[in-house]
Design goal:
- By secondary structure, the chain is mainly alpha-helical.
- It has a domain of 40 residues.
- It is 56% helix and 0% strand.
- The longest helix has 38 residues.
């Protein structure tokens, strides 16, 4: 009976160790990949789009003057 209790306590110690390592790895992944993405959210490129676009299809010199 004493052997079973010592095995159970050593197994729980191993579980705590594996759990702690997994938590450390997850935190490292968040720091390495997550934080750079969060800091670059506002650094999007500035694309200038005009308020109004001139779509005049009857421009002189194009040969599409139907009235003349």
């Amino acid at each position: 009976m004493a052997d079973n209790e010592s095995n159970a306590s050593s197994n729980s110690g191993m579980g705590i160790l594996i759990g702690a390592l997994l938590v450390i790895v997850i935190i490292l992944l968040i720091v390495i990949y997550g934080l750079p993405r969060l800091t670059n959210i506002d650094n999007s490129p500035d694309i200038g789009v005009p308020e109004e676009v001139d779509v005049n299809i009857n421009q002189p010199g194009t040969g599409n003057n139907q009235g003349e």
